[in-house]
Amino acid sequence: MSDLFERSIQILELPQVLEQLAAQAVTEEGKERCRALRPLTDMDDVQRRLDETSAALSMIVLRGSPALSGVRPVAASLQRAEMGGALNTRELLDIAALLRSARSAKEYAAGEGNAAKTCIDHLFASLTPNRFLEDKISGSILSEEEIADAASPELADIRRHIRASASKVRDILQKLISSSQSKYLQESIITMRSGRYVVPVKSEYKNEVPGLVHDVSGSGGTFFIEPMGVVKTNNELRELQAREEKEIERILRELSAECAAHREDIAQDYDLLVMLDCIFARAKLSGKLRCSSPRLVKRGIELRRARHPLLDPAKAVPNDLRLGEGFDTLVITGPNTGGKTVTLKTIGLLTLMAQCGLHIPVDDGSAVMVFDHVLADIGDEQSIAQSLSTFSSHMVNIVGILEQCGPGSLILFDELGAGTDPVEGAALAAAVIEESRKRGALVAATTHYAELKVYAMTTPGVENASCEFDVETLAPTYKLLIGVPGKSNAFAISRRLGLPQSIIDQAAARIDAENVRFEDVLTQLDRQRQEMEQERDKARKLRREMEESAKTAREYRERLEKERAKAVEKAQAEARAIIQEARDTADQVFAELNDMRRRQEKEASWQEQNERRAGLRHKLNQAEDALGSGPDLPAPPPTRPARAGDTVELVKMGTKATVIAVNKDGSLQLQAGILKINAKQDEVRVTEGDDGKKQAAKIVQRAEHKLRSLGASPEVDLRGMMTDEAILALDRFLDTAVMAKLTEVTIIHGKGTGAVRKAVREHLKRSRYVKSFRPGRYGEGEDGVTVAELR
Questions:
Q1: Whole-number Å distance between alpha carbons of 321 and 302
Q2: Top-level CATH class of 151-254?
């Protein structure tokens, strides 16, 4: 990267954005990498970084950020461990924290919310957590100052002896304090000097307490003496403490060797976690600045509602910025403090951010080109030390820019040609722009010169733009208008500030007639632009209202269609269920009739029964066909209200039934064959003189009578069946028994393993047919049968 490119990065304030990025990182090295981030110049590399940022942002939205706070540098510790050195407790705890963070990140990526594949999955997959080493370090080291007893059996044994010896010493000294010798003590306490237990003795009685003097107070009034009775025990205690220190050193060496054995995996985990920290920092900055990922294109820039990232989002005015599509040069004019320089910096800074892999504060659909160089000449570059004027300093920068610019360059000129004679400066500015264009660069320049406005209007590929200024309030609006040159507001501003009109008229008289006409044209263009924008805003508002109305109507129509389809489907489903139930019942009756035919030859001939059965099936089929015609069939003519004893036809089904009774609310109880159903008055129509119905009713009644008399058995044998098979057989048996109006039945299930018996009795508890049940008595089969009383 050239010095001029690096200087442009500083001018466009990319480091300030990177400082915001570093604030989002968690690890110290991650923060440093964020600050050192520089634009990439390969489109594939830029796209990869943007995709990483997008993937991390999606993960944050679904699951929050991964926990990386425990990641600290461990390279130096690992290198010393590999050389055979013993790491201290702080270094080992850092390695354990790193392993814990790697495991946590791996679990984070494998969470339920991350089912979709992303371009950073391979980073998580490359992590190699070591739960064994992590737990071994964490279980052995409680803090920087404390090693756990469980670090080794030897350490636990030594500490047990230390506690016993210390307790023995304290007991001996406590007896001394409680004895007649306590009068020799300065205080009745036990303390320590040089790692040995002692008692404070008054100086005048130092010879009365035989022992070793370890210390004397500053005043000389107190001697700290180790009585002879505890010297041996204290010596044992010191030996144990020395053994404890050696065992701790051995444990630390062992843990250090374990770390050295896994050095490569731990180092790789550290690098991966720092890399992930940087990626997620980019994602968090994207969310903070309300950014989106731009498309990468071969040429040009299109920024929709772009905002400068260092401005207050609540105050920054978003602008649509274009360059390279239809024109390769943008000349921005307007008054001072009108936002021209901010616009120029926004174009350059957002381009640099995108090439760093950062999302940019724009709306969706924005696109940027990946440039080889982004070169800027912005600000007052006057150098007293180098004896350079403003114009000279700018020209030095321009010379350097022209030497490096090419087809992959973005050139930004602020106040091009300023600081010298206006005529010469304008001509020189136009020549610099033309040279930059010839070399294939995209150019954006700000200027005050009217000559450059004319140049932009008359030169293909060069477009005017201006920063809007409100003359009424004497304040800029910071709104960029592409295609409209900025007009001079000096006279209008002076008039608003109270400059006499006569002076303004004298000044106007001195202006060249061509300039006057040019300014008049700009004024007319500005007025027409404002009118067109107002009309466009009205048209947009009307279009939005029409779209909303159309959307509301469409949603209402769709809702009606769904409700209608749901009602039709529900009605058809109910009708099908009723018909299917009737068909099933009819099939059962027909089966029983077949049985009765074989058993009772005295009944009507078999041919007559077949004809009746065919007639009933025909009516069911007619009802099913009527169902298929849907709810649009014409309603049948109304009849008088049905009364008990009437024969009626169910309108929806086409099935006839007999009215058994009329309920208080006006609804009807109907008998259709062996079915009893309820219906409203408007759901039936009264039919007259239906002899076939009466005849069919008689057949059904005879069938029910025969079914009760011949088809039902008071007992069922379930032995040898599986549980599910037995329950199904039991249900069929209970249905038949209830229809036959049996009051007591016997279920034979046998004893065996008891599984069928348990299932039968559980089922009987839930059956609506069963009033009560009991095990069989002596002579009935005892526990091998169950006797049930039916309702």
A1: 6
A2: mainly alpha
- Measured on CA atoms in the order 350, 351, 355, 360, is the torsion positive or negative? positive
Q: What are phi and psi of 167, to 5 degrees?
A: -65, -35
The kind and range of the H/E element at 89 are: helix 89-109
Q: Which residues contact 126 (CB under 8 A, 6 or more apart)?
A: 268, 272
In sequence order, the 6+-apart residues with CB closer than 8 A to the CB of 442 are 299, 300, 301, 323, 324, 328, 329, 369, 409, 410, 411
CB atoms within 10 A of CB 222: 18
Q: Would you kindly state where each structural domain of the chain is located, as residue ranges?
A: 20-130+262-288, 151-254, 295-488, 579-708, 712-790
Q: What is the token pair recorded at 525?
A: 């263009």
Q: Which structure tokens are listed for 722?
A: 């599986």
- Rounded to the nearest integer, the mean pLDDT of the chain is 81
749: three-class secondary structure by DSSP: coil
Residue 505: half-sphere exposure toward Cβ, Cα within 13 Å: 3
Q: Evaluate whether the domain defined by 579-708 bears CATH number 2.40.30.20.
A: no
**Residue 540 has which token pair?**
């947009």
Alpha helical stretches, state H, 357-417: 390-404
Phi, psi of 145 (to 5 degrees): -105, -5
Q: What is the pLDDT of residue 689?
A: 46
Q: Do the domains spanning 20-130+262-288 and 151-254 agree at the CATH topology level?
A: yes
For residue 286 the two structure tokens come to: 């994207």
Helix (H) or strand (E) holding 125: helix 121-125
Q: What are the backbone dihedrals phi and psi of residue 660, each rounded to the nearest 5 degrees, phi first? A: -85, -45
The CATH topology of domain 295-488 is Rossmann fold (3.40.50)
Query: Where does 712-790 sit in CATH, by number?
Result: 3.30.1370.110
Q: Which pLDDT band, with edges at 50, 70 and 90, does 76 fall under?
A: very high
CB atoms within 10 A of CB 643: 12
User: Rounded to whole angstroms, what are the CA distances from 213 to 199, 203, 575?
Assistant: 10, 11, 109
**Phi, psi (5° rounding) for residue 193?**
-140, 130
Number of residues written out for the chain: 791
Query: Distance between CA 605 and CA 357 in Å, rounded?
Result: 93
| Cα(418)–Cα(420) distance, integer angstroms | 6
SS3 assignment, position 248? helix
Is 443 within 8 Å of 416 (Cβ atoms)? no
What is d(CA 762, CA 742) in angstroms, rounded to the nearest whole number?
21
Cα separation, 69 vs 31, whole angstroms:
12
Comparing 78-92, 126-140, 179-193, 589-603, the range with the smallest average pLDDT is: 589-603
Of the two residues 197 and 44, the one the predictor is more confident about is 44
**How large a percentage of the chain has pLDDT more than 70?**
81
Distance of CA 497 to the CA centre of its chain: 56
Contacts of 589 (CB under 8 A, 6+ apart): 673, 674, 700, 703, 707
3-state secondary structure of 14: helix
Question: Which residues, 6 or more positions from 610, have their beta carbon under 8 angstroms from its beta carbon?
Answer: none
Rg of the Cα atoms in the chain: 49
Contact 603, 596 (CB under 8 A): yes
Q: Which CATH class is domain 20-130+262-288?
A: mainly alpha
Sheet with 191-193: strands ordered across: 191-193, 196-202, 222-227, 211-216
Q: What is the pLDDT at residue 94?
A: 93
The answer to whether residues 374 and 39 touch, using CB atoms and an 8 Å cutoff, is yes
Q: What is the pLDDT of residue 281?
A: 96
> What 3-state DSSP class applies to 1?
coil
Ranges assigned E (strand) in 595-706: 647-650, 656-662, 668-672, 675-679, 684-687
pLDDT score for 609: 52
How do strand 462-470 and strand 475-482 relate by DSSP bridges?
Answer: antiparallel
The sheet with strand 367-369 has its strands ordered as 295-297, 367-369, 301-306, 319-323
Rounded Cα gap, residues 718 and 502, in angstroms: 120
Query: CA dihedral defined by 455, 331, 415, 527, rounded to 10 degrees?
Result: 90
